[in-house]
Every structure is written in C-alpha cells, then in structure tokens.
Amino acid sequence: MTVYRYWDQAELNRQMSARGTVPDIAPMMGDYARHSAAMRAALPCALNVPYGPTPAERLDYFPATGPGAPIFVFIHGGYWRLLDAADSTFMAQTFVEAGAAVVALNYALAPGASLDEITRQCRAGLAWVYQNAARLNGDPARIHVSGSSAGGHLGGMMLAGGWAADYGLPEGFVQSASLLSGLFDLEPVRLSNCNEWLNLDAAAAARQSPQLHPPARPLPLLIAYAPNETEGFKQQSECYAAACRAIGCDVEIVIEPGTNHFDLPLRFMDREAALTRAALRAMGLPGL
Asked: Model confidence over 163-213: pLDDT tens digits?
C-alpha cells in the first residue's frame, strides 16, 4: 500500500533513513567530538553560554580575530534526538582563519522536547547571537546560518518569516545560509518511523516545514548533499532549493564528491573543499 507518493511504508522508512546509507555512524560521530574538542583546546572560545532558561539552551562561540566580522552559526543534526553543541565546532579554525566568528547552538532533544520547542530554542539562540554580536567581534547584519540534517531543517526554520519580531529582531535579519542534507518537508518524515520520536501530527509537520515557509527575503543560499543520499533526502534539498529560487534567492547547490550524509559537514574543516568555498562566498569572505 502506498503511504507517501509512490513509496510503501517499508520504502518510505528507508528513504527517510540516513543511517541506512553507511555501514556505521559511530566513526563520524567520534570525529565530530574529537575535532570539536581539538578546536576548543586550540582557539579562544566561550563555552556553555546560556541563551535561555533551560539547561539545554546554551551555546559555544569562537570570537573573530577582528571587529565587524560575519558570524557563522552552526546547528547540529542527529535527527533532532542526538548530538550536542560540544560535537559541533570542528569547523571553527577554518572559519575563524577566514575572518568569521563561529557559534554552535545547543538545543533540547526529542522526544523530551517537541519540534516546536526545539525550533523556539534555536530561534532564541539566534536572537542571543544577534543581540550579543559585539561579544563575538561580529556584525549582527552578517549572520550566516548553517546546519546539517536535522540542523539543516532548523536552519531553514531560522530563515522563515514571521517570527523575528517576537524576539525584537528585524524581519529577514539572517544574511546568508548553508544547509546540508536538510529535511525541509516534514510530511514524509511524519509518515515514516521517524515519527516514533517526533510525535508530529499533520498540523505540526506543516508548521515545521521550511518548504512551506521559505526565507523571509531573498538571500545567498548554499544547499548541499552527499552523492549517496537516498532519493528522498535528495528531493528534500532540490525541492527546497527550487522554492527559494522562486522568491529570488541566489541558490548554489553543491554535491560534494566522496562524502556521505554524516561526513559531509566535516568538509568544513578543509578551506579548499567546494562546500567551504561556497559557504565563504555566501558570507562575502574570500575563498582560496
């Protein structure tokens, strides 16, 4: 029986599974933590900075070396139920050396937190970044939002219109973005076995789908995914890119050779990688 488009339940579950595209996610998870720890040891940084009232509402940041810098804000993936900001600063040296500040946002995980609450927390964290940009040697008019997988989804929700005024921010304040392997239409996610921990109904899936809530204004946007992603994940990126182009965004799609869903964000550690160079262009920073 078809559950979504032309997929039955088993096939939909496979299409929405990132884990199924690699033999084991543990090595990449270990790389996130190991490289992030190395950045914290090597670079000036502030850790576990609270941006809200709950323990999960905290961030790590690496200030830029000079004032007025763009701010690279990274939101981690993990299908909204794994990982931490402490696993998410592996790109710090690359972007600090390129002239940016780097921030890793933390948020509460599902199923303990609803997706509405997770999005609210990330928006509160981004508001903190805007309001405290000077602490980072950053320019609040040059915020770049990035994220991978579930973080790509959350990044898309940061770009959406209609929420900034609730935090005292100007509409469309994000300057540019790089979203990797994101989930932008949550209806197939809701219908898959991923909903065991998300507990979305149809209204929540629509409310939390960046595909239905495009950016508040046209902006430079990098969309990236790995060559071996499932058709379902590739469609998510391509359809969101088309929706953003339709409102005037300057969209660049990068399919980084030799990567998978999990090690793709680690390419941000390489200044020469196509992914990194595209992100730097979107931020208005010189690449190599």
From this structure: 999 999 999 999 999 999 999 999 999 999 999 999 999 999 999 999 999
Report the distance separating Cα 119 and Cα 97, nearest Å.
30
Both tokens of 120, joined, read 């609210």
Q: And the tokens for 196?
A: 């065991």
Helices assigned H by DSSP within the chain: 9-15, 26-42, 92-97, 115-131, 150-159, 187-191, 195-198, 202-207, 231-246, 274-283
The answer to whether 213 and 184 are in contact (CB under 8 A) is no
Give me the pLDDT at residue 287, please.
61
- Alpha carbons within 13 angstroms on the beta-carbon side of residue 78 total 20
Residue 23 CA to residue 134 CA, distance in Å, equals 44
Number of folded domains that form the chain: 1
Q: Kindly report the CATH number assigned to the domain that includes residue 192.
A: 3.40.50.1820
Q: State the residue range of the domain holding 231.
A: 2-283
Q: From the CB of residue 286, how many other CB atoms can be counted at a distance below 10 Å?
A: 10
**Residue from 183, 175, 180 nearest 266 by CA:** 180
